[in-house]
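User: I've been trying to design a sequence by hand for this structure and keep getting stuck. Would you show me what you'd pick, starting by listing the structure so we're on the same page?

Assistant: Good idea, let's start from the same input. This is the structure you sent:
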């Protein structure tokens, strides 16, 4: 209902008024991007998005680096 009423009102506007509406919409989009970017990714992302981001990060790690020897994680060597 509201959408239809707004469409009817927009059809009545002249070019200058439409430019003001377009500027206002651009401002709202800019403002929402600013708000979104002010929160860290981990706070605004869904668990699925965080998991995908983590997997992408892991896939970029070097695959030929040596792993720790078993002795490094042995209970006997932990101080």
């Amino acid at each position: 209902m509201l959408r239809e009423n707004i469409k009817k009102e927009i059809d009545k506007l002249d070019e200058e008024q439409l430019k003001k509406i377009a500027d206002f919409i651009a401002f709202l989009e800019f403002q929402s991007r600013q708000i979104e970017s002010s929160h860290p990714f981990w706070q605004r992302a869904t668990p699925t998005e965080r998991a995908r981001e983590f997997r992408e990060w892991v896939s970029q790690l070097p695959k030929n680096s040596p792993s720790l020897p078993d002795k490094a994680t042995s209970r006997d060597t932990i101080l």
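That's my pick for every position. To get oriented when you compare it with your attempt: The CA atoms of residues 44 and 73 lie 35 Å apart. The helical segments are 2-11, 15-38, 41-44, 47-59.
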